[in-house]
């Protein structure tokens, strides 16, 4: 599959914090500053190229080059690793304002909907590197370690694709996803209902497998645009997720939800949770 590599100029436009030349003035002397662009260049040298970038919007323009940012990397077409209907990516997040360390996650890019997700590779969610010495070497080592998880992720995806779930089970999954996005009181604060998250945006997603339900819910949550009603009765549309922190956090949570949902389904425990039809 052909891909578009972000040029330095495009990367600068999408995420100027990647090119920061100094950290926040409030950091201590022990803070080891490393410009994100140096890590980007090191990953490019290892065959991982930036294909998408995002940074958190801030009102204070002085924080624009310091705020949390995210870059997604993919290998060249001849080396791309496929997982089901997805391509493997590396997801790098960082900030220069003391709010986040360098973090590298294993990501999946789904070809059908051009929507990226972040897998949970272990209990920590990825590789974290504190600001200090040897950041580049730690990130490169981390990328090699993360790739070792790909076969396990691939097995999980194959299993989700072969796991069929009922309409009531899909609604239960969507309810859990809404609680992850809007909190436990989502029934009162959320403008949309579970069935809205299950809307199909393309014909190939009609299948009732756990994998397709996961993808429909993930895409509808992240891209927004769903019609609903606010708590005071106004017609509204859900917003796309633009926050780097929310992007990674919710992606990880949805992946973990899918893992747990699959375990319950395999153990035939969903029957205790899904209400029986009248």
Short description:
By secondary structure, the chain is an alpha+beta fold. 37% of the residues lie in helices and 17% in strands.
What attributes does this structure have?
278 residues; alpha+beta; seven-stranded antiparallel beta sheet; 9 helices; 9 strands
Principal-axes geometry comes out as globular
CA radius of gyration is 20 Å
Overall strand count: 9
Tell me the span between the first and last alpha carbons: 48 Å
Strand content: 15-25%
> Any low-confidence stretches, pLDDT <50, length ≥5?
none
Secondary structure category: alpha+beta
Largest sheet: 7 strands, antiparallel
Question: Which bin fits the share of residues in helices?
Answer: 25-40%
Number of helical regions? 9
Q: What is the typical, i.e. mean, pLDDT?
A: 84
- State the order of secondary-structure elements, H for helix, E for strand: HHEEEEEEEHHHHHHEEH
- Oligomeric form of this entry? single chain
Structure description:
This protein has 278 residues and is α+β, with helices and mostly antiparallel strands. Strands 1, 2, 3, 4, 5, 6 and 7 form a seven-stranded antiparallel sheet that branches. The chain has a two-stranded antiparallel ribbon with strand order 8-9. α2 packs across α3 and α8 runs antiparallel to α9. The termini are far apart. The mean pLDDT is 84.
